[in-house]
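Quick one before lunch.
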Amino acid sequence: MTDGLLLRVLKAVVRAAWALEYGVRRGARRLARRPAYALAGACGGCARCCEKPTIAAGPILWRLPWSRRVFLAWQRRVNGFALVEADPTMRTFAFRCGHFDWATRRCDSYASRPFMCRDYPRALLDQPWPELFPTCGYRPLAPNAAAAREALARTGLSEAEREALERKMFLR
Ligand code: SF4
Ligand code: SF4
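Model of the iron/sulfur cluster complex:
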């Protein structure tokens, strides 16, 4: 169901808070010169990331049932996310989004979509081995990609072998 005015305003406020937090976190990472993947490519609009939006939650949410209830109620009421799967091992919640139209593969409230939808797949770049959807137009780029490509060029591998390795290691 399309977001009304109240939800649009509420989501804009929450989105700004998340954008600030992630901006600070990523800025600190850059200042500390901690290597991270860069994001290459562009969104091709496949909408694969809308099929089952997933949120990784901190330990507090898993330990305190009431905080989990509040979190899930918020997701349902504000973001339109209905819980379909909770994975305590990975500490993730997977949802079905009420804004996603499976027939047209469009979001009915695109302008007020949450921060995580806008940010996808940047949060995955913090992982040691980011796994994006195969249809995603984005791709991670390793921090030392250019130097590693040059080193590979000196190995005597065939062009096809080098290309395959470069893709596997997120070097291109
Ligand atoms: S809110 Fe929109 S962009 Fe986000 S998962 Fe749902 S359909 Fe996709
Ligand atoms: S999976 Fe990637 S290409 Fe597809 S809609 Fe999401 S961000 Fe865009």
